[in-house]
Amino acid sequence: xxxxxxxxxxxxxxxxxxxxxxxxxxxxxxxxxxxxxxxxxxxxxxxxxxxxxxxxxxxxxxxxxxxxxxxxxxxxxxxxxxxxxxxxxxxxxxxxxxxxxxxxxxxxxxxxxxxxxxxxxxxxxxxxxxxxxxxxxxxxxxxxxxxxxxxxxxxxxxxxxxxxxxxxxxxxxxxxxxxxxxxxxxxxxxxxxxxxxxxxxxxxxxxxxxxxxxxxxxxxxxxxxxxxxxxxxxxxxxxxxxxxxxxxxxxxxxxxxxxxxxxxxxxxxxxxxxxxxxxxxxxxxxxxxxxxxxxxxxxxxxxxxxxxxxxxxxxxxxxxxxxxxxxxxxxxxxxxxxxxxxxxxxxxxxxxxxxxxxxxxxxxxxxxxxxxxxxxxxxxxxxxxxxxxxxxxxxxxxxxxxxxxxxxxxxxxxxxx
Length: 417
Prior knowledge:
Helix content is about 50%, strand content about 10%. The protein has helices at about 50-55, 85-100, 120-130, 135-140, 145-155, 165-170, 175-180, 185-205, 210-225, 230-250, 255, 260-275, 280-300, 310-320, 345-350, 365-390, 395-405, 410-415; strands spanning about 10-20, 25-35, 40-45, 60-65, 65-70, 80, 80, 110, 140-145, 225-230. The chain starts with 9 loop residues before the first strand and ends with a helix.
């Protein structure tokens, strides 16, 4: 059931591009969409985008002289940006304009489409930073999870689809996005797709509905699943506490954070799962001190989010960390046998023996033959250099005569006589 009073509300889809997927990251692009109007502005972040965010959003931070700016990795052009507070105020002005254009509306419901709730937290965190929450709540009354609604109406397989794949399944018409070479890594495109997905789900099999009837069905569908802003603030507090629990467990997985990206992701996953179940460093230490490894086994087996092999690995990591008689586990890294210097000169490639001749260096093409030929070439160069010098270099007396304008030096004359 909805937590809002009954009435008419304005539906707006919202999404953000960020420097990462943590609460301490920053918003890079803030976008919102309605069929009548769209808002999209870029923010110049203080921190740089992490590699995953750069790959997803196809933008990066560059420095030209003393200035930092955003650059698109698709068009190779600099993106126009504003400070975060300026974009947030522009966004609030845009929301207030929507509210004024519909006097019968009691407020705005923001629809976000994502597998893991993140957009409301980032938006509320940014608004808290500049004391804009009160002004925000005068226009916006609720958030609604469009992804959960899609899973409920279309089935569990939607969990494994991106927003673009979900749009293809529902046969939505988004040719404009493809013609502009846009993609689902841009918040401006995701907001439009999120709105169209909910609109298509509301229509169902009734494809002949007009715009007014479709808007009413969409309103009724989203209204039943809207949650208040206060509930999201309480969830945000829980997320901040969960982040503190994760930070407390950093010494346990520090070896995983020092190596490859694969192991860093595994370490972050282990730490996040433990924090989501309410565990921190001190609680894990108390479990080991009371029941040793058996207590850790009981604890990890209750976590259904991990596979069996992951549970075994996590148990070993925790046990080796808290047991002073054991060494901390180091992740197993597969080393490749490729040489460090991938670029080889032509002479180096010539000196490499074929595989069928590696056991016999006397054969043609072996290293012994190559070394002998190289020695001969060096000796020939020395011989040619000596013969050239002896043919072109003047005699010692002639050289001194040339230096003194054709006259020999007195000591040379005396020596000659």
